[in-house]
Amino acid sequence: MSLLLRTIESFPRGRTTEELLVLLGAGFSHDKRMSALAELDELLRAGRIQRGRDGRWRAAAPRQQLDTIDKNRSTAAALESGLPDLVAAPARFTRIATPTTETELGSSRESQPVDCGALLRYWRSALRADPRGATTQVADKHGIEWALISGRGPIAPTETETLRVSISLETLAPTFREALMRRDANENGLALGWPVAVSRERGVPVFQPVGLLAATWEREDGDLTLTIDADDILLNPDWLRGAARVTGWERDRLRDLFRFDEGIGLRASDFIQKLRDAVASQIRGRIVGEDLVSQLDPEAAGIYDSAAIFLPTDSSFTAGAARDIDRIATWPEDRLARTALASVLGISSRSEHRTIAAINVGPLNGEQITAVRNACSAPLSVVTGPPGTGKSQAIVSMAASVLAAGGSVLVASKNHQALDAVEDRLGDL
Q1: How many CB atoms sit inside 10 A of residue 233's CB?
Q2: Rounded to 5 degrees, what are φ and ψ at 339?
Q3: I need a labelling partner for 253 at 20 to 30 A (CA). Which of 67, 99, 363, 417 fits?
């Protein structure tokens, strides 16, 4: 008998999903959580447990187990009682013209000192205002960490508009409203996901936004009001992995299809056209963002014209960066002056910088050689370029140059494939 089943049988009055996860030590581990949810699903299918109207799991009586196993009772009927459709909260979409403003740049701007603390706080707020990281959710977290919304779009603003989405707080689950209120006063960023894909992960129904828009929120006259000021949709990396596996796409090719520029998303019209072309077999109905569906069936796999709001969690890749900036903001100016940030903040550098002879471990073209020379001579160097233009090869030459001069190198990236490529090429040397 499994530990999960023994735990359920130990509580005749029942326990909620969240209580069971805590009892099993799976409350804060994604892998353990998904494994426990998959086992719940298996026990439900086998008729060993049942879920009451109060949301609590209980062991099924022997007679109920026999009825469930009976051929005349379908698995779908068993699932219907445990996995109801998720219902969206109605929302109102309002487009507001963005006023144009002219900025006057005076000649004295260059001489004004930079407030390092204020600039770092701004960077930090910008990071937290865009919490669009990898996102996967389950039904039991609906109304806690995420919530479906419906209504008449459009789902994204134009270049000259700001989109405001208003949802009555009374239509949102109390647990979701509590989660909002627990946020810090300056943590008012969330992600708006659209469209939403329904699939299975380790046997458990999961919900993944295909695209993500950045939004800010505020309470206003009994409403939760979202503000979206940019038509800028980023692809959800979690959806990308599953979609590549199901559709037969190579993950890198599918990612490149939706790539516009590093950190910049696609316009909604471009995004949805690429989606229709790439995974047409997965789309259910029309995906236009103008008449969002009001409920989702956890058992009906596919991509739907549905939208949801997702609260950021500490697992978001931006959370760690925000904490780093919080720490850096406490540093005195003389410490900042000894880092590469001095060049960004306009502080006179006090670092012991020395020019290093640039080595071409090649083959490098003229632009790559220039980038390597800059990196070996300047306190800070920025190199940009689309995929396939040789950035990794330039990094290898930069690293080799520093190592040959007796220095040390730290190579960091949010893309492990880029790190692997640099490590392999350095290893070959």
Answers
A1: 29
A2: -120, 170
A3: 363
Residue by residue, what is the 3-state secondary structure of 232-301?
A: CEEECHHHHHHHHHHHCCCHHHHHHHCCCECCECECHHHHHHHHHHHCHHHECCCCCCCCECCEECCCCC
H/E stretch holding 310 reads strand 307-310
CA within 13 Å, CB half, 121: 7
Determine the length of the chain.
Answer: 429
pLDDT digits (tens, 9 = 90+) for 214-233: 888 998 888 999 999 888 89
**Category of 338 on φ-ψ map: left (φ > 0), alpha (ψ -120 to 50) or beta:** alpha
Q: How far apart are CA 216 and CA 225, in angstroms?
A: 8
Taking the CB of residue 7, how many other CB atoms lie within 10 A of it? 16
* Cβ proximity of 307 and 214 under 8 Å: no
* H/E segment holding residue 335: helix 333-336
Distance (Å, whole) CA 342 – CA 335: 9
DSSP 110: G
What pLDDT digit, counting tens, does each position of 81-124 carry? Answer: 456 889 999 999 999 987 765 545 444 445 566 677 777 777 77
Please report, as a single letter, which amino acid is at residue 118.
A
Q: 269-276: long-range contacts at Cβ-Cβ below 8 A with a sequence spacing of 24 or more?
A: 271/211, 271/233, 272/195, 275/195, 275/210, 275/211, 275/303
Distance of alpha carbon 90 from alpha carbon 242, whole angstroms: 29
Taking the C-alpha atoms of residue 372 and residue 370, their distance in angstroms, rounded to an integer, is 5
Nearest to 336 by CA among 354, 319, 350: 350
Residue 96 CA, distance from chain mean position: 27
Any idea which residue has 């550098």 for tokens? 349
- What DSSP character marks residue 150? E
